[in-house]
Amino acid sequence: MSVIELRDVRVRYGSRLAVDGVSARAAAGEWIGLIGPNGAGKTTLLRVLAGLLDHDGEVLLDGEPAARMRRRQRAQRIALVPQRPLIPPAMTVSEYVLMGRTPYIRYLDVESRGDVRIVTGVLQRLDIDGFADRTLGSLSGGEQQRVILARALAQQAPTLLLDEGTSALDIGGQQEVLELVASLRASHELTVISAMHDLTLAGQFCDRLLLMADGRIVADGEPRAVLTEETIRAYYGANVRVIEAPDGSVSVLPIRSEAV
Amino acid sequence: MTSIDAAREVRPVAVRPARLRLRWWAVGLGALAGAMLLGVMTGPVALSPGAIAGELLDRLPFLSVDSGLSEQQAAILMQIRLPRVVLGALVGAMLSIAGAAYQGAFRNALADPYLLGAAAGAGLGATLAIAYGNAGQGLIPLAAFGGALAAVALAYSVGRSSTGRTATTLILAGIAIASFLTAVQTYVQQRESETLRQVYSWILGRLGTAGWSEVLLALPYIVGTSAVILLHRRHLDVLSVGDEEADSLGLDARRVRAIVIVAASLGTAAAVAVSGLIGFVGIIVPHTVRLVAGASYRVILPLSLAFGAAFMILADLLGRTVAAPAELPIGVVTAFFGAPFFALALRSSKRFMP
Fold first, then answer.
1. Which of A82, A108, A128 lies nearest to residue B244, judging by beta carbons?
2. Which of A90, A108, A130 sits opposite B352 (nearest CB)?
3. Chain B contact for A139, CB < 8 A?
4. Half-sphere exposure at residue B45, Cβ-oriented, CA atoms within 13 angstroms
5. ipTM associated with this complex
6. Could you say which of B4, B11, B249 has the minimum Cβ distance to residue A103?
7. Closest residue of chain A to B236, computed from CA coordinates
8. Taking the C-alpha atoms of B62, B66, B69 and B75 in order, what is their torsion angle to the nearest 10 degrees?
9. How far from A225 is each of A19, A248, A253, B287, CA to CA, in Å?
């Protein structure tokens, strides 16, 4: 049964269609990578899924129209790690991750002991329980990334949306966070939809890739099928070599064209 | 992976929601009690703490205590100093919590009821009601509230529509709106000179001439709106990550902002109605609290109430003693401390707001 379904979704920014008739399905437990050049509509599509944008067409979560859900209900099903999260520097890690419990707390209530217990578990799972009382401003970029992920996990939503969550990190940091997402996905049975710039990482971590260009999905399939030298040249205007490892995973290498 | 290994060596720290610690409760209430006592003791006729306590106990039902105060001294305490101190406490608490509320709702560490134009809007609303409204006194607070809300809405929309919006844009817009509204108000005052005296006493309504009637007029608004703001302390913390993230966490950011701003503006209007235009309290107090006690609104809001009340009582005390027997308007005292403080806050505002 498909967890998420998009039916002919369109988003207009002024006169421009940022998303132009996208229909897609994500099965439960799948990791889908959204790739495509800048301005292709990846972030817009994630914001539609998170319920942050007015749009035409339908979004169905477990068969239910998301438009009819209350904001809290949607936040219990979909957690978003935004591209550039606002980090209040004086807030502590505890306080920040506890915000992930917002969809479960009644309007005028505060966090219960149960919420504290859940957040304690999440911090342990991500190995950041040692600095629960540190302020966000005192953390390194990689540590902040973990804390942001922890807040999304505290939402206990079955679907995790990652918007280029790792692009600010160095190569080791990127790998570390993606490995973490992969293991969380396995242990928490998460569906993951991530917008990604790095095609090699996308090819290695995702089950399926959706290539977007000008607001449309122009290719959809397993990484080997989508990441071809011709496709990447056509949509990114990039000269690359695609290398397939014996296990079937692919790496994308940029190559300088010979005639300069 | 080294960072994981490093984290493992650190002992786990307990997860804790932000809350106001007991010792800050004690400091806040202690400061308020101390300021109130100092406020009622000091004046041309000095009253001793023991006598004040005795007199107050004597007023309680079923208790009879001989305070040793003469009838005249008792009247000074009960009819002049106490209402003045209580009113100062209410106004200071309100302007401070309103400032903190605006700061959270606008995510802007420089917001203040005075700098946003809310106070000037309330003044103009009241002036219009006095000059042209025939409905009498009952209409004035409502007109003040309408004016306060309109001024904040105007400052917000002007500040938002300008390109390159920063924390200071909103404040510049607020100051422009405030100047304009004050100009309109002055014009109306001059045109309708027969009501001038009434307007003046209302706008400048110093704490000095206040009695229990002013306290009773402002009390329900101040208690009610402060309660609404306090109930949104957790939401104001969530708003600090921005509207979009707050929405994705299941909180309706715009609704929370609207509720908090309406409450802060109504409270400001009530405070202006009894005290006149008093600036900078709403920025000095929450800022100091943020620096010393913590950045969560669960800490800032209640402590702003207590320290704001204490600050206003002391500012008023200074205003009536420094040039005695003459009195400095309290707005002059708060501006004397507030303007330099604002300059400091301006320099450091980047540290608090992303």
1. A82
2. A90
3. no
4. 13
5. 0.91
6. B249
7. A99
8. 10
9. 23, 11, 16, 57
Q: What gap in Å lies between CA B56 and CA B77, rounded to an integer?
A: 9
Q: Are strands A191-195 and A159-163 parallel, antiparallel or unpaired?
A: parallel
Tokens of A177: 């966070």
Backbone angles phi, psi at B89, to 5 degrees: -60, -45
What global pTM score does this model have?
Answer: 0.88
Q: What tokens does B89 get?
A: 């406490």
Distance from CA of A120 to the nearest CA of B (A): 6
- Chain B hits for A95, CB-CB cut-off 8 Å, are 17-18, 237, 296
Vertex B223 angle, CA B217 and B227, to 5°? 155
Q: Which two tokens stand for residue B326?
A: 């003459």
Q: Do B354 and A119 touch (CB under 8 A)?
A: no
Measured between CB atoms, does B245 come within 8 Å of chain A? yes
| pLDDT tens-digit map of B217-258 | 889 999 999 999 999 999 999 999 988 999 999 999 989 998
Q: Are B41 and B48 in contact (CB under 8 A)?
A: yes
What digits encode the pLDDT tens for the residues A1-32?
458 999 999 999 888 889 999 999 999 999 99
CA pair distance B77, B84, nearest whole angstrom: 10
